[in-house]
Amino acid sequence: MTHTTQETVETEAGPARITWHTAKKARLVLAVSHGAGGGIEARDLQALARALPGHGVTVALVEQPWRVAGKKVAPAPKTLDTGWRGLWPALTRPGAPVIAGGRSAGARVACRTAAELGAHAVLALSFPLHPPGRPEKSRAEELLGAGVPTLVVQGGNDPFGRPEEFPDGPYELVEVPYGDHGFAVPKRAPIGQDEAVTVITDAVVKWTGSLG
């Protein structure tokens, strides 16, 4: 059984919220935030919150201040980084090494701030390598500059960057076959939605187990 609690944390960007899914004997904390258009109800974030505490990883689902305030659209990247920095002391408080993570815009925040905040590793879910249809506007530098062990989990059909578009670099990449930016798979795909989500959770369980 996972113990779930919520806390509000004041940041310079406004109040943020952490929903803790606490492991009994936590080796690691995985802090993951949402993308620019959604919240922590995203299927991958919820699946990780269910799966990882049984493997000794506490999951902290982070809601950025703009979401807590009920706004529909994310602010500029700099403001997202400010919110994330403000949360960091609360994330490190349990005492276990913290993996910085997020999906989409949240993955970019985790990459940009990992070295500065002393993150143990980075989990990038649906990393938006470029805006859809604009491969020349690459954000690969953010990913390549994370400076800590990094796992990218990417949908095979993600319009923000398919796995084969990613440059070589010091990170691991796991493909979710047929998945889009939200890891949804089409009905006609040879794998079902539950299987697609299991690809994500299995990969993250294995990776967090290798981090020591």
Provide a descriptive summary of the structure in words.
The protein has 212 residues and is α/β, with parallel strands linked by helices. The model has no long low-confidence stretch (mean pLDDT 96). The chain is globular, with a radius of gyration of 16 Å. Helix content is 31%, strand content 25%. Strand 3, helix 1 and strand 4 form a beta-alpha-beta unit.
Q: Please report the total strand number as a whole number.
A: 8
Helix content: 25-40%
Task: Please describe the biggest sheet, giving its number of strands, its sense, and whether it closes into a barrel.
Answer: 8 strands, mixed
If you compute it from the alpha carbons, what radius of gyration comes out, rounded to the nearest whole angstrom? Answer: 16 Å
Number of helices: 6
* Helix-strand string: EEEHEHHEHEHEEH
Write down the overall geometry.
Answer: globular
Summary?
The chain is an alpha/beta fold and 212 residues long.
Any descriptors?
single chain; 212 residues; alpha/beta; 8-stranded mixed β-sheet; 6 helices; 31% helix
What is the secondary structure topology, with strand pairs?
Blueprint: E1 3-11, E2 14-22, E3 28-33, H1 43-51, E4 57-63, H2 65-68, H3 77-92, E5 98-103, H4 105-117, E6 121-125, H5 140-144, E7 150-155, E8 172-176, H6 193-211
Parallel strand pairs: 3-4, 3-5, 5-6, 6-7, 7-8
Antiparallel strand pairs: 1-2, 2-4
